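Late entry, written up from scratch paper. The run itself happened at the end of the previous shift, but nothing got recorded in the book at the time, so transcribing now.
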Amino acid sequence: NEEQSWELFSNKVFRGDEYPCDLESLGKQIVKSCGGLPLSIVVLAGLLANKEKSHREWSKVKDHVNWYLTRDDKTKVKDVVLKLSFDDLPSRLKPCFLYLGIFPEDSEIHVRPLLHLWVAEGFIQENGSRDAYDVAEDYLYELIDRSLIQVARVRDVEGVQTCRVHDLLRDLCILESKEDKIFEQRVEMVYQTIQIGSGIGSCGNALF
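Output as recorded:
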C-alpha cells in the first residue's frame, strides 16, 4: 500500500533521519509514480539519496519520470526508473555495473573475485596511494547504496561476501552493454571464460 511504499522509500533516502516537511508531499508523488513496485521504489530512492535534498532536484527527477511515461503509453515505470538510475551513475561506476551482466541470472556472486576482475579490467581509477582493491570495494558499496546491487551474504569480519543483481537490472546491464560494441565484446569473452571455468549450469549457485 501507499504507506508501506512511502516507508520503504523514506527509510532508504533519509536513512532514519527526519525529513524536510516540504519534501514529503513531493516524495509521495514520486513514490506513487512507481506504481507500488518495490524495485522501482528502492532504486529511485537510491538515486535521490545521492542527490541534494531539495525541492528543485526532486522535481527534476519526478518530471523526468512523468515525461517518459506520458510520451509513450507502452513505456513502463520500472524501465524509466532503472534507465534513469543508470544514467545518473558517475562514469567511474558504469563499467563496473555493466560488467555484472556477464553473470547468469539469479547467480550469487562472490565479492572478492569480482573486485579483482574490476581491477584487472582497468575499471578502477587511481586514488592517490590507495590500493586499487580498496577503491573497487568502495565502488561496490556505492552500487549497493544505490540499490543496484543486492547483498546476499555478509560476514562480520569480512563484510559483504556475496551479492546478487536483480533480473531486471541484469537485463539493463546487457542492454546498455550492447550500446558499446567494444565493451560488449570484452564482456562476451569474460562470460565465455566464466562458463568454461566454473561449470555452472543451474541458477542459484555462487560463482567463484
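Residues 120 and 132 are 10 Å apart (CA to CA).
(Scratch paper discarded after transcription.)
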